[in-house]
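A student in our group prepared the protein record below, which I am reviewing. I have pasted the whole thing underneath without changing anything:
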Amino acid sequence: QVQLVESGGGLVQVGGSLTLSCAASGRIFGITTMGWYRQAPGKEREWVARITSVGTNYTDSVKGRFTISGDNAKNTLYLQMKSLKPEDTAVYYCNQNGKWLRREYDYWGQGTQVTVSS
């Protein structure tokens, strides 16, 4: 079982930047999608950004401010966040899903807190 560990969260002021990392405990094969989600207090978890074989996608509220990227050599997924807003405050989760040797998988990290203060 592969484990995903997020890091890089913290407290930042409005307009500031943070880069989140998601390190996998081992090499993951057959990946379909790598993505970031977030869950704000009292709200449902929402999708933020993802990488697929055809490219990257972002939810409208973060377009132009967030950048998702991956480093295969380090088995690590990143989320660069700029121009942060109070509404970006949430627990951020990374996710990797796909299929390998006829078995589907859906891995989640434990989450990292991002707090944007005004």
About this structure: The radius of gyration is 14 Å. The mean pLDDT is 95.
